[in-house]
Amino acid sequence: MIWPFPPLSLSLSLSLSLRHLCKKKAYIYAHFCKPLSIDSKLHSNNNRSAAHIPPLPNLPFPSICCFFLGRCGACGFTPLSFLLTNTPLHLSSLHSHSPSHLLQKISSMAVLLVAVLVLLVLVLCLSSALLLRWNEVRFSKKKGLPPGTMGWPIFGETTEFLKQGPNFMKNQRARYGSFFKSHILGCPTVVSMDPDVNRYILMNEGKGLVPGYPQSMLDILGKCNIAAVHGSTHKYMRGALLSLISPTRIRHHLLPTIDHFIRTHLSNWDSQIIDIQLKTKEMALLSSLKQIAGPESGSISGAFMPEFFKLVLGTLSLPIDLPGTSYRRGFQARKSIVSILRQLIVKRRESNGSHLDMLGYLMNTEESNRYKLSDDEIIDQVITILYSGYETVSTTSMMAIKYLHDHPKVLQHLREEHLAIRARKKLEDPLDMDDLKSMRFTRAVREASDSYIFHKV
Fold first, then answer.
1. Most buried one in 55, 67, 323, 374, CB count within 10 A?
2. Is 97 within 8 Å of 77 (Cβ atoms)?
3. What is the DSSP letter of 296?
4. How is domain 221-406 classified at the CATH fold level?
5. For 71-91, how does the pLDDT look when each residue is reduced to its tens digit (9 = 90+)?
6. What is the annotated signal peptide range for this record (predicted)?
7. How far, CA to CA in Å, does 42 sit from each of 51, 54, 86, 154?
8. Pick from 228, 226, 210, 209: nearest CA to 218
9. Every domain range in the chain assigned CATH 1.10.630.10
10. pLDDT digits (tens, 9 = 90+) for 21-36
């Protein structure tokens, strides 16, 4: 008998029905989609089989995939699986097998399956080894490179670098010395951990050596940021940024702004249990944003902060622009930040007001620097300022708090120095440059925190 099945997806109950009707010890797996009506009329000349097969009722099941464990010698079903896709199902040729014969067939198929899996694993291992070897040979053709490994094509050793952190550099130095090659963050890299070599590189930066950064960082921070430009453009931008932190601006604008912000921000921490790592990052970003956007920083900080955190993660990822990657999220976050800053610039130009913050100064660089920055250049410099100050300030603050907590005597000495400065001033008087210069022990604590961070790096 032949029953034409449209594309199906059988259920367990349907498989039990077929098993009862056909008297075949077959195991069928299936799932459902849409109703299926099966015509039970006989389409075969096999009267003996037809006499034993009653009509099938209309079953609410759809198009099916059936898996048979065992092989029917008469009908020739494929071992392990048989896909019903508009394929006539020959029920008349099915016959029963003894349990021992069925178990023997199952065992033989299990052995075959294990052999296939083992072969697949061996092929994958061999392919991986050949791929790694090809990547090493490809870079070894370039003469003059130090020893080292390049990892996988495209990805390199980025996964190990991000997972192991400082231990990755220590392990590579133990294997290859203080000067070795690698492939990190999508870039072929030569790593130097030798102080003399590093000093030579920094001293000769403008003599044949050009500073470079990972491609993901250049893409997300912008093509106009100071780290990506060279020559006269770099000179003018450097002058504009240095003018933002001149002694006069620090004394009259930056220091009072930072003092007022930190007092207000820290007062919100009273009587709370806080995550110091998260809070120091928020404090560092909001403080920088206050210096850049002034009073308008409060209105944009809510939308700005989560996008900036995504941007930072994107700069430390592989430059693979695929949905779900940190690079894609970082690039999308940059677009959101650019939109926020561009709206702020347009709003300020329409108001024709004067602003003493960093953004206002960058918008009027032509008056002092004889070089007018475009809107794109202004936005990229703002993002660069926020990015460069965010991680260093937040990490230093967090480490200082940790080690002050671990060393109560140092904390007590620090408190005494600050209380002595406060005793000379009124309660609401801000700190000034003379106060900062008198904080010798505070400066030592800050430098010790910086030294620990850079030592770990």
1. 67
2. no
3. G
4. Cytochrome p450 (1.10.630)
5. 444 344 333 333 333 444 444
6. 1-15
7. 10, 10, 18, 61
8. 228
9. 221-406
10. 344 333 333 333 333 3
